[in-house]
Design brief:
mainly alpha; Arc Repressor Mutant, subunit A; two-stranded parallel sheet; about 35% helix; DNA-binding
DNA sequence: GAATTGACGGGGC
DNA sequence: AGCCCCGCCAATT
C-alpha cells in the first residue's frame, strides 16, 4: 500500500526539504520537485507550498530557484529574476532562464534513498543538431 | 455543485 | 518557441 496524503499540507515539509537541495546558480521546475517528493505530489501543490512560506522560512528555503517548465518566472513583485541573476543564472531576451545551462539534475541517488525521496529520472539530451 | 482561478505540466501541432 | 487541449489539486465564487 502507498500512503498518499489527502491533505496537501502533508507535503509541505518534504517539498521544503527538496527545495533546500537546489544549489545556487541552478534552478528546478515545480514538476521536478513534485516528482522527487513523489507519493502523488503535484506541481501545483509545490506552488501552493512555496506560496505559503512565511518571511522567516523564506530565508532558509531557496524558493526563488523554482521556476516553471518553460524557464519562465511564475511570480511577480518578489524580484525573483533579479535574485537568480545575482546567483549566476542567465536569461534570454524573452525572460526565460537558460535551462540548458542551469537546470538542476536532481539530488544524488544516495541522498534521495537516504531521505526517502525519488531521484529525478535522466533527462534525454536535447539534440539541437540539424541532421541533414 | 459547476465554473473559475492559481507560484503547473505533458503532448500534439 | 508558441498555442491549444486536457489533467491535476485546492480554494473561491
Amino acid at each position: 500500500m502507498s500512503t498518499q496524503p489527502r491533505d496537501e499540507h502533508e507535503y509541505y515539509e518534504r517539498i521544503y526539504t527538496v527545495v533546500e537541495q537546489v544549489p545556487p546558480g541552478k534552478v528546478a521546475t515545480y514538476g521536478d520537485v513534485a516528482t522527487i517528493v513523489g507519493d502523488g505530489c503535484d506541481a501545483r501543490i509545490v506552488g501552493h507550498a512555496l506560496g505559503a512560506l512565511g518571511a522567516r522560512r523564506a530565508e532558509t528555503v531557496p524558493w526563488q530557484r523554482i521556476i516553471n517548465r518553460t524557464g519562465g518566472i511564475s511570480t511577480s513583485g518578489h524580484g525573483q529574476r533579479e535574485i537568480l541573476q545575482a546567483e549566476g543564472v542567465t536569461f534570454d531576451e524573452k525572460g526565460h532562464a537558460r535551462m540548458d545551462a542551469h537546470h538542476w539534475s536532481g539530488p544524488t541517488e544516495a541522498w534521495a534513498r537516504a531521505h526517502g525521496f525519488q531521484p529525478l529520472p535522466q533527462r534525454p539530451p536535447q539534440a539541437q543538431l540539424t541532421l541533414f
